[in-house]
Amino acid sequence: MHEVIILAAGEGKRMNSSRPKVLQPVGGRPMLRHLVDTVAAFEPKGIHVVVGFGAGQVEAALAGSGCRFVEQAQRLGTGHAAAQALPAIDPASRVLILPGDMPLIRGETIRALLDSPSDLALLSFMADDPTGYGRILRDAGGRVQAIREHRDASEAERAVCEVNSGVMCARAGDFAAWLDRVGADNAQGEYYLTDCIALAVADGRTVEAVVAAQADELLGANDRAQLAELETVYQVRARQALFDQGVTLLDPGSVQVRGRVQAGRDVCIDAGVVLEGEIELGDGVEIGPGCVLSDVRLAAGTQVKPYCVLEGMHSTGACTIGPFARLRPGTVLGEEVKIGNFVETKNARFSAGAKASHLSYVGDAEVGARANIGAGTITCNYDGANKHQTRIGADAFIGSNSALVAPVTIGEGGTIGAGSVISQDAPDGQLTVSRARQRSIAGWKRPVKAAPEK
Ligand code: UD1
Ligand code: CA
């Protein structure tokens, strides 16, 4: 049984942000959230998050995650931070310590560290540019001796490219004993967690640095440029997961995944598509260019034409959407429904074969099977204080430019004459018209321009 400590008290000054660094998003979710999800898969006995700067924001972002929060009132270094969490942990438990700004670390990599039989195991990697990192110092026999922080390192030590990722693992009791002996006599005047290595070596304990196969998953982000690099790595990975599921991306680099996507086979996604939140795409779904989908479930065969914005909606059968449609939360589309251009829907249920092909607003409505909503039709669902429901029966035909003033019901097979304002229920099967009757005035003369005065 092991426990996890995540160090997340720092501000991340170089982000120039009002939120703590660990809450900066990668793939649409806070960096810390990725890390918590990854370690939670190991079912640790506890996840202890050390918070300080923006503690309230961090706790809110992890609400419901089951993490325990420990306040580090003063930022006195990574060793001091870890020490805040240790008293609550059984000394015999193995503890995994991670920095909170490492969102891309994979479960396999953590597993390799947990599998190390050493008393103290840490994760290192080979950096192209080791500037800023703690260097792993090994003796002639390759045994790890110490970690030297960049600012404390000599010229020769700075030439070392094997660096500390910040992830380590040992028994809680050992960490507590080593951290008791760690001082702050260094360039930053901080209590370094990394000083535990030399102390463990001095005690004759076994220390292993597990060199990670892929450096990019251990990248942290200290500034916005590094955050953008993490995003790139994340997106490459997210797109690979789509390919693995059988998705075609016509312009992979332009598709952004900011959530979890479950896709069937032969899904095709065009250029410039953004996928957010929880997304489910059935077999053969097609998404045209420029669409933004968030929290959307599309049944097999659904076609989304270019430039649609879909949020909190789902389809229950193959239907077509767009181009230029905006479907808002609570929209449900049945089989063979057609939502055309410049149509906005909200909290609206379209039964099989219903159509709204052009320029409509359909909100708080139920649209029966095969009903046809003409261009420019508006459900007037809001009276300025409350929202009301519009019911449109199966096979109804709503003439263009009608206003349906809710609450109102259009009967099955009912027809509404174009340009009507319907404020009372319209019966089944009849034509209902509420516009002024057309008339022509015989002998009417157009006005003529008055002659200019002389
Ligand atoms: C740390 C390591 C360094 C390693 C690098 C990897 C130490 C002394 N150095 O350096 O060897 O190469 O990470 O990125 O550990 N934090 C607190 N409280 C504090 C200080 C830090 O919670 O008092 C948290 C930060 O919020 C951050 C993490 O600890 O999430 C790491 O701190 P950071 O300042 O980024 O350490 P580095 O200088 O990068
Ligand atoms: Ca760092």
**Percent range for β-strand residues:** 25-35%
Give the bound compounds: uridine-diphosphate-N-acetylglucosamine, calcium ion
**CATH architecture classification of the largest domain:** Alpha-Beta Complex
Instruction: Count helical runs.
Output: 8
Radius of gyration over C-alpha positions, nearest whole angstrom: 31 Å
Task: Identify the strand order in the major beta sheet.
Answer: 12-14-16-18-21-24-26-28-31-34-36
Note the main sheet.
Answer: 11 strands, parallel
Derived from helix and strand composition plus strand pairing, the structural class reads alpha/beta
CATH topology of the largest domain: Spore Coat Polysaccharide Biosynthesis Protein SpsA, Chain A
